[in-house]
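As a representative case, we now present a protein record of this kind.
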Amino acid sequence: MNQGRVEYIDFAKGFAIFTIAVLHFCQPYTSGVWSKAILIGGSGAHLFIILSGFGLGLSRKVDVATFYKRRFMKILIPYYIVIVTIFSINLIYPMYEDSGLYALFGHLFLYKMFDESIMTSFGYHFWFLSTIIQFYIAFPLISLVQKKLNTVTFLLITLLISISYWLLITYLNVTDQRIYNSFFLQYLWEFSLGVVLANYYKERNLLFWEQKDILLFVVAILGISTMALMALKGGDVGKIFNDIPASIGYLSLSALIFSISKKYIKPVKDFFVFTGKVSYELYLIHMLVFILLNKLFELLINIEPNIVTALLLILPLTILISYSVHKFFIVIFSSYPQKTPIKV
């Protein structure tokens, strides 16, 4: 099996972050049914979690100390640089309220994941970083348990843990609080699914994304429709319990678009693959760039922010800026060993 980059994984990362960015860029300009429809893009976070499990499951085995060093070098240093940058800009041009030193230290020392008041400081999307960091902390234990159990048992146990957690936070009536609804146990089964899919890929060369288009289409429609119905009719509780259809539906949708674009629209495939390679940088900076470019265009060329400029002007520029940031981080980390998939 080829241990190099997996094209679909880059594609799926690009697809996930693109739909998340579209969601965030459209939210200020939509209302009514459209404001609800674009929320589908938020399912990109579920896809990211599955892909994170896949990436770690696919990576080369190293000792736990090396694993933590590499993971936190890759994730935390760029994160810290971006957060300090946002904090500094916020002192001059206030973009976020209640984002002072306490919030800054919450990001730097990671206690924000336990404090609802600063959980989404410096940008609502930063909740996701807390979840991923929690998974990195827990991954050696998750990997150990996975190796001692057969696949079905492992998936069932992690699913039961997630469902039990959903029931617990529902009973405690805290489903609307980010420190609870983004805790890693909420998504444990998704991450574990990614680890299992990686093992099947390594050991059996199973390309789970290469299924019949009609099957992918049906699963995507059923999953996304069920997710939307539960979210619209079930409120915060529905959003907690709709993770299963959301994850499976969005995973199938990404595989379907990959299959169709690979066969018929290669530029679309190449675009998402390119975007996937800078997905982390794009995730970190997209809202900062969005706010600053909107203000810049408004001041310099009198362009009033709207959905057209957001999607056709600011979004492409944000992707290009993310590419530059990606190259900047490569230069910073050039003195360190090159990134390899990390498998524990």
